[in-house]
Amino acid sequence: MIILSQMGFSPENDASENYRILQKAADIGGDIYIDRSGTYDIDDTIVLKDNTSVIFCAGAVIRRQKNKTETSYLFINEGAFTRKYNSNIRILNLTLICNDVVSENITLESKKGVPGLNAHLAFSYIKNLYIDNFQVYDLPAKDFAVQVCSFENFMIENSRIEGRKDGVHLGAGNKFAIRHCIFKTYDDPIALNAHDYATSNPQMGWIENGIIEDCYDLDDNNGTTGFFCRVLAGSWLKWEKGMEVQHSDIVEYNNRLYRVFMEPDGRIFKTLTPPTHENGLAVYDGITWCMVQNEVIENCGCRNIHFKDIFLQKKRPIAFSLHFDKDNFSRSYYPGSNAPVLDNIIFENIYIQNDITTFLHARTPVGNIKLINSELGGAGFIFKNIETEGIVYTKTNLVLSGVTFKDGIETLVSADEGFEITLSVSSSIASDSFKPLTEGNVTVKSSDISLSIK
Question: Roughly how many angstroms between the first and final C-alpha of the chain, as a whole number?
Answer without folding.
Answer: 67
